[in-house]
Amino acid sequence: MIILVYGLPGTGKSFFAQLLAKKLNAVHLSEDMIRDKLNAKGVNDESTQQQIYNELYKQIMIELRGKHEVIVEGVFIKSIRREMVKNIAVEIDEPIYLIELRADESTVKKRLRKTRRHNNIGFEQYKLMEQEFEPESDHHLVLLTDEEPVEDKVARAIRFIKE
Description:
By secondary structure, the chain is α/β, with parallel strands linked by helices. It has one domain: Rossmann fold. Helix content is 52%, strand content 15%. The protein contains 7 helices and 5 strands, in the order βαβααβαβααβα. The chain has helices at residues 13-24, 31-37, 46-65, 79-91, 105-113, 123-132, 150-162; strands at 2-6, 27-30, 70-74, 96-102, 141-144. It is globular and about 40 Å long.
């Protein structure tokens, strides 16, 4: 099983994905972890982004072949990058669930002011990414991360997966 957790920076993806992975005993793979592995922190050009996603897709395949359930977490602004993960699921006959995280702009602004371990995106970059974000057309769960406790969101995600 693949669970793709995606959304703009500052929406709480990493924290949510870590808790969900723990609850489901799944492997958590993130765009930020791969960015660190490739020593690409702060580098956001298209070539580096593609390199990060290619490595992420490779890691997904490795974990799924090892019979692990996988939670993949990242921004995934471009729908084509989400499509790649969906294609992996189809190729190896695994179910896939899409969960988009969103937050109110004031919440995002506060979160982005904090020093972050993997990525230090500012609010101006967030606004540019927001303009480039391509909406998802397939069935997916949308969670508003500033409206309820994270434990409740994890429970909602698990119900969504079991539907």
